[in-house]
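yo, Soluble lytic murein transglycosylase is done. seq:
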Amino acid sequence: MGVLKKIGLTCLLLAWVLPAAASLEKDFVAAREAYAKGRMERFTAIANKFPKDHLLAPYLRYWQLKSNNPSIEAMQAFIQQHPDTPLADRMRQELLHKLGETGDWRSVLQQTGLLVKGNAETQCLGLRARLALGEPSAEKEGADFYRAARDLPSACDPLFAQLFARSALTEEDRYTRMRHALEANNLRLARELDSQLPEDQRMQADALNRAQKAPEALVRADSNRRAQREAALYALAQVAKKDPAAAAQLWEAEQEAYPEGERSYGWGVIAMAAARQHEPRAMEWYGRAGERLSEEQRAWKIRAALRAGRWLDVLYGINGLPEASQAEPTWRYWKARALKALNATATANALFARLSSEFHYYGLLAAEELPARLEARPTDHNLTPDELAEAEARTGLKRALLLRKLDLNIDAVAEWDWALRGLSDPQLLAAAELARREKWYDRAILTAEKTRDIHNFDLRYMTPYRDLAEAYAKRNDLDPAWVYGLMRQESRFMDYARSGVGAIGLMQIMPATARWIAGQLGLNKHKAPSEVKEPETNIKYGTYYLKRIYASLSESAVLASAGYNAGPGRARKWQAEKPLEGAIYVDNIPILETRDYVRKVMANAVFYSQRFGNPNNSLKARLGTIPPRSNAPIVDEAAPQPE
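structure:
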């Protein structure tokens, strides 16, 4: 009877607690909606009654403070009371702005040091504080920050005014920033910088419009104004993007009207455009540019040398990169390959050995270059019940899961990521397992990838929807490991994933592509997006489309992966006139997103193949040799292509 009484009491307690919790969650959502709509009376009424010890109570307190122009003391108190939530960091950003207004630079510097996630405004405030307090390195860091091409908030203007007043920034820096802005196609920023010049030094009012509409004429027009010549160099870049050979011919005729440094820069612009389009004369034009290249121009010189098989140029090019860039896996791998090709085998193997311990695309490739093949994957860490229980009890993770339950996904992700700070490898893996059990697959994967020494590859390379994925892979005669590698990269297995351009679901199908596939399969072409998003339909459509691309692109997984992301027409356009090593093809893909995508899909496929019982599969074999460009039809003339 005692046991029955306990069970009865437990049931009664649950019957009371669960509805109460649901009621509070409804109150929270109502309060958030009222705050968003500016209905502060209703918001305050709900917030005042909400339990102060509830997981979500910090959000209500944060919104209350935000709406009442809080004092510095109130902001500091909130930060101290709620250190276990990213709201503390958001409030610290607000506090920094207020401290900056008062000129309390010592406090600004202190708070900047405590900030976990800053932005351009807080970075500028921190630099202003360091300048005010006499830190010697602040001038150089501020000047470097200014020269970047990105838009910066008006809060940075006082910093830059100080740097110009101290001669830490000069007019040459303004022109440098203008050039970087034009390289990034940031015409708004370029015009703003031009407006800051003396009137007799500015470019013509319509110069940038002419650079886009009639670029050749602008290049031919002589000018003694530096800004006008920067517009002309931008115009030269527009010609080169369409036809590098025409740009080279134009520059050959007009370059004498420009100073020597600008002549070299013009050849660098043409050479990089040629390298991106796989024009064989790219290396010739790089030779005319000399060594005064931007980092991006230098990177494309290395890629052009790779495509041409010029290993000495590859090595020299990598050695000429900034140290931070040389440390990237891409250039460490290709430096080792260049050394190996130049018979410096021992040095190459030392580089390969260090890189092979890293679990990514280049780590896998490096392992295959070593005389003795290394095991690519260590034993998985098996979680204990205590480790899982600790994760389930962690306040930040619980708050993140509750926010996700309420469809507040941005806040949920922020809470989750905040809660991971400082966790050990086993704690990270326990959190990843918790996310997996909640079917929050993208967080599970990203959390498992954060481990440093202890790993669990079943969590990194999980297999949701396995029955569906394997069935449709088999139906289309596709490698399930490759299908999983692609699906993982497309959506991290979040079936509600939707891209900025409208791609839907696990395999990110565009609506127009879905209609075409449905027609090919004899199905209803007018399925609602919610139906296309449904896992089985999405996998069915995605694997069908992948198979069609694969079949029309020489049954190359590399070409098909590139085609799935950027369009099969582009994947074929990037092929050479002769056979090309797969890894060299991948690193010469001109679209950064697609280049990174193909690397990750192909590496994913190796890890999934290992998980599916094939420990000795080769990434180099998967990449293969890319055949010469073909003129055969691609997929179907009516098939929609990605933009």
